[in-house]
Amino acid sequence: MLVGDVIGQVFSGLSLGSILLLAALGLAITYGLLGVINMAHGEMLMLGAYSAYLVQSLFQQLAPHWLALYPLVALPVAFFITAGIGMALERTVIRHLYGRPLETLLATWGISLMLIQGVRMIFGAQNLEVANPAWLSGGVQLLPNLVLPWNRIAVIAFVVIVLLLTWLLLNKTRLGLQVRAVTQNRAMAACCGVATGKVDMLAFGLGSGIAGLGGVALSQLGNVGPELGQGYIIDSFLVVVLGGVGQLAGSVVAALGLGMLNKILEPQIGAVLGKILILVLIILFIQKRPQGLFALKGRVSD
């Protein structure tokens, strides 16, 4: 195998891993805090991607000279739209189903279907194109047989920034302290004056907002369609469970590991067999270490 092929596979693995991380990062927060199996999380990715499409359309109509800047505007728009939807879902539906995992799964699955059908009714079933601006087009030619696309380089850099900001939020702010307290011991946090209901709502909104940012990133890599999020929800749960519930470091390692493993196995045995082998390996790993790569630290009273 040529050096360019090896570097290309590593870069493809990093690119896929960064997308999986962005898709799973919000889920790691909500699932780790609330224990909610949110089957509608993938649709937050989809709504973020459609937000990018809408912002692009507005720029094309109202400010064509500034069209190259539309991704920068689409990011906060997508975040606040999906965060608002996430908080509304937590307040109106999910809050009443805590401790009832089957009902929560069915309810969020129903919400997922409604969001998909709603988008299909508004935008149509066909895929829509979100064009890369000029500064994200082309790539860097490292070797004669290796070109690294600018859009994927930008997505990897963007994921690093989002990960850093999320870490700062969870470790250096009052909200982050409350989120970590509720995650480790909800009853004790409530006894110490933490408004657990408010923390739940804000954390769910944060997780949904991060997924919306992931949707904007995905829109720069391919077309946007109503079922965009369906391709990432299972892998997102795999990242969260493999990395360890509530552990950002574990999610990073799991996402990058899955991305690399996918790209290594794909040319060897094919995409389908590669996915099956990865699932088998994860099942075997979880049987031996159900807490994941990184166990959540905390003290539990007897």
From TrEMBL:
Q: Which GO terms describe its biological process?
A: amino acid transport
**Spans traversing the lipid bilayer:** 6-33, 45-63, 69-89, 101-123, 150-170, 237-261, 267-286
Q: Which domain of life is it from?
A: Bacteria
Question: One Pfam family name from the record?
Answer: BPD_transp_2
The UniProt keyword set, sorted, is: Amino-acid transport, Cell membrane, Membrane, Transmembrane, Transmembrane helix, Transport
Topology with respect to the bilayer: Multi-pass membrane protein
Location relative to the cell: Cell inner membrane
Please tell me whether the keyword Ion transport is annotated for this protein.
Answer: no
| Molecular function in Gene Ontology | transmembrane transporter activity
- The coiled-coil regions, if any, are none
Q: Name one GO cellular component term.
A: plasma membrane
The UniProt entry, under InterPro entries, shows:
ABC_transp_permease, ABC_UrtB_bac, BCAA_transport_permease
Q: State the family named in the UniProt similarity comment for this chain.
A: Belongs to the binding-protein-dependent transport system permease family. LivHM subfamily.
Q: What is this protein called?
A: High-affinity branched-chain amino acid transport system permease protein livH
Query: What species is given as this protein's source?
Result: Yersinia enterocolitica W22703
- Source organism phylogeny: Bacteria, Pseudomonadati, Pseudomonadota, Gammaproteobacteria, Enterobacterales
